[in-house]
Amino acid sequence: MKVLFISDLHLKAERPDITRAFLHFLTDTARSANALYLLGDIFEAWIGDDAPVPEFEPICAALKTLSDQGCMLYFQHGNRDFLVGDSFLQKIGATLLDEKQLIDLPIGPALLMHGDQLCTDDKEYQDFRSMVRNPAWQQAFLSKPINERLAIARQLRATSQQRATEKTDEIMDVNAVAVATALSESKVELMIHGHTHRPAIHYAQLNATHGTRVVLGDWDTSLWYLSCDENGLTLVDEAIG
């Protein structure tokens, strides 16, 4: 059994090279997988399933084809695409995951997260996250005209980028206690997440001898994915041509 994990592609019209790389990944690498997990921020922004993005249609078609061929697709909300809804998931043939999702892998159980909720030192971001994840806020936002939603999304993104330049790398990374707590509460020793754009496999995350945390990489100059089978975990880095 082969399972793949990706996150943080940040697909957008301005980066057709990433779209092309993803299409190749879906039709080539992922074709041999039994399951593909999309762990958030697949899109740079998502303002609702009713807001068409023509540039994403080939991606949707390729995901649906992969699903129809027998590869199980799973989607987890990120901090950019938390408004992905049932309509889009049905369109691509994917199942929505909880923001903390336990799964069974060929090597044992694992906890999946996008990862932003682990950045607890960034109090400002966590307050913002609580606001936009509130169902009342989301309902109010989705009730607005598409043009207005686009304007709000651009403003929020500009503000976020500005604030990020004022924060240290340590504040924007995961908190070690939050990681250990999540692993302990879930009673597992493997966590897989994205968000921080710092791909690596970390050990001793629960204590001095236990706990592994795999951080998925973002797609920019390279495409990153995690492959898991009976032989273990492999974090793969390939150039985006």
From TrEMBL:
Highest taxon of the lineage: Bacteria
Cofactor(s) demanded: Mn(2+)
GO CC annotation: cytoplasm; extrinsic component of plasma membrane
Pathway assigned in UniProt: Glycolipid biosynthesis; lipid IV(A) biosynthesis; lipid IV(A) from (3R)-3-hydroxytetradecanoyl-[acyl-carrier-protein] and UDP-N-acetyl-alpha-D-glucosamine: step 4/6
Record localization: Cell inner membrane
Gene Ontology BP annotations: lipid A biosynthetic process
EC number: 3.6.1.54
A molecular function GO annotation: manganese ion binding
Function: Hydrolyzes the pyrophosphate bond of UDP-2,3-diacylglucosamine to yield 2,3-diacylglucosamine 1-phosphate (lipid X) and UMP by catalyzing the attack of water at the alpha-P atom. Involved in the biosynthesis of lipid A, a phosphorylated glycolipid that anchors the lipopolysaccharide to the outer membrane of the cell.
Name of protein: UDP-2,3-diacylglucosamine hydrolase
Species of the source: Neptunomonas antarctica
